[in-house]
UniProtKB/TrEMBL annotation:
GO terms for cellular component: plasma membrane. This is Phosphatase PAP2 family protein. It comes from the Bacteria. SUPFAM superfamilies: Acid phosphatase/Vanadium-dependent haloperoxidase. It is a multi-pass membrane protein. It comes from Polyangium jinanense. Residues 176-199 are annotated as: Disordered. The keyword Transmembrane helix applies. Pfam families: PAP2.
C-alpha cells in the first residue's frame, strides 16, 4: 500500500467516524460553515468605513482574495472529488453537496487566513479567532463535504497567507502618519542661518 493509499484510508475512516457526530452539534456547524463561506466578510464593512482601520482591513480582504484564488487553482489542478460525491456512506449532513472539487478546503483556508491575520495585528483576539477558524474548518468534515486532509491543507495554506499579509506594509498604511502634522527630527533642527525653517 502506497503512502497516498494510507492517507486516503485514514481520511475515509476518520470522516466516517466524525460525520454528523454528535448530532446535537448540527445547528452549530451549519451556522459556522455558513459564516465561514464568505458571508462573515460583511462584518468587515464598518472597519472599511473607518479611516483608522481602513488600511488594515484592506490588507485583510486582499489576503482573503489571494487565499480564495490559490484554493481555486489548487482545486482545479488536483481535482479531488468531494467525499459526499464519492463515498456512498458519506452523504452530506443537513446540506446538499456544494459540487466542485474537494482539495483543499476553501472554508478552512479562508477562516485560518483570517485568524492568522487577526492574531498578528491584534494578539488579544488570537484565541477566539483560531477557535472560530477551527470550528469552521471542522464543520466541513462534520457535514461530510470535505476530507480531514482537505481542511488540514486549507488551514496551513490560509495561515501562511494570513501571517504574511499581516506583516506587509503598503503606502496606504502610511497615510495617517503623513497627515499627522508631526515633523521629523531633521526638519525641526535649525537651518544653518538660525531660522529653523527649511528652504
Amino acid at each position: 500500500m502506497s503512502p497516498l493509499d494510507v492517507i486516503s484510508a485514514a481520511d475515509e475512516a476518520l470522516l466516517r467516524a466524525v460525520r454528523g457526530s454528535p448530532a446535537w452539534a448540527t445547528p452549530l456547524f451549519v451556522a459556522v460553515t455558513f459564516v465561514g463561506g464568505g458571508w462573515g466578510m460583511f462584518a468587515l464593512v464598518p472597519f472599511l468605513a473607518r479611516e483608522k482601520t481602513r488600511a488594515t482591513t484592506t490588507r485583510l480582504i486582499a489576503a482573503l482574495v489571494v487565499t480564495s484564488a490559490l484554493v481555486s487553482t489548487v482545486k482545479a489542478v488536483v481535482g479531488r472529488v468531494r467525499p459526499c460525491d464519492a463515498l456512498a456512506a458519506c452523504e452530506p449532513v443537513f446540506i446538499t453537496s456544494p459540487g466542485g472539487h474537494s482539495f483543499p478546503s476553501g472554508h478552512a483556508a479562508g477562516s485560518f487566513a483570517f485568524a492568522a491575520f487577526v492574531a498578528s495585528v491584534r494578539p488579544v483576539f488570537a484565541v477566539p479567532a483560531f477557535v472560530f477558524a477551527a470550528l469552521v474548518a471542522w464543520s466541513r468534515c462534520f457535514l461530510a463535504v470535505h476530507y480531514p486532509s482537505d481542511i488540514l491543507a486549507g488551514a496551513l495554506l490560509g495561515m501562511s497567507i494570513g501571517f504574511v499579509a499581516a506583516r506587509l506594509r503598503f503606502p496606504l498604511d502610511l497615510k495617517g502618519s503623513s497627515r499627522s502634522g508631526s515633523r521629523s527630527p531633521a526638519s525641526s533642527r535649525p537651518a544653518p542661518g538660525g531660522t529653523g525653517t527649511p528652504d
